[in-house]
Amino acid sequence: MQLDLRDIIYVPGASAPFEYEPDLSEAVGGSIVAVRPGASASGRVRNSAGVLHFDADVEAVLECTCARCLKVFELPVHRSVHAVLSEGENEDDPDVYTLCGDNVDVDEIILTDFILNMDQRLLCREDCEGLCEKCGSDLNDGPCHCKSETDPRLAVLGQLLENE
Ligand SMILES: [Zn+2]
Ligand SMILES: [Zn+2]
Please, how many CA atoms are within 13 Å of residue 44, restricted to the half-sphere of its CB? Predict the structure, then answer.
């Protein structure tokens, strides 16, 4: 979304609010398989003593695949995005965005924040046990058969029994 800043760009103290549904589909990748419809972005650009400050609250629900057990789960995400807008080129500072005439590309700022801050490997829960490398069972549902067969403690016990 392009936000027109014509009315605030030279007016210290003025601000331009916005609220819309951002297109976050470019954030899909890695564990993120989809962005649920209904994402929201609201905030404003404020002229503070001639400097344009951008603030936005972004809420979205991501559809993810666990990097360990491949289960599909939903992840609600909330981000507070801050940036400074500049009329000139400021390629050295990644938190400064250049205006396009009197407009700012809000999607670009929100998407950049999202892509830079989201983990590409997400887990359904912190202590996800993952899948057995041999049989593919979901170890969150309990140990599989091949796990007990290769348990080193049982192997030692088996040897002791054999030697008797
Ligand atoms: Zn998992
Ligand atoms: Zn197994």
Answer: 10
| CA 3 to centroid of ligand 2, rounded, Å | 55
Give the domain ranges of the chain: 2-128, 129-164
Distance 138 CA to ligand 1 centre (A): 9
Whole-angstrom distance, CA of residue 65 vs CA of residue 72 = 5
Distance 120 CA to ligand 1 centre (A): 14
Nearest Cα neighbor of 22 from 3, 46, 38 is 38
Q: Would you give per-residue pLDDT tens digits along the chain (164 residues)? A: 999 999 999 999 999 999 999 999 999 999 999 999 999 999 999 999 999 999 999 999 999 999 999 999 999 999 999 999 988 766 677 778 889 889 999 999 999 999 999 888 999 999 999 999 999 999 999 999 885 555 566 666 666 666 65
The model's pTM is: 0.80
Gap from CA of 143 to ligand 2 centroid (Å): 7
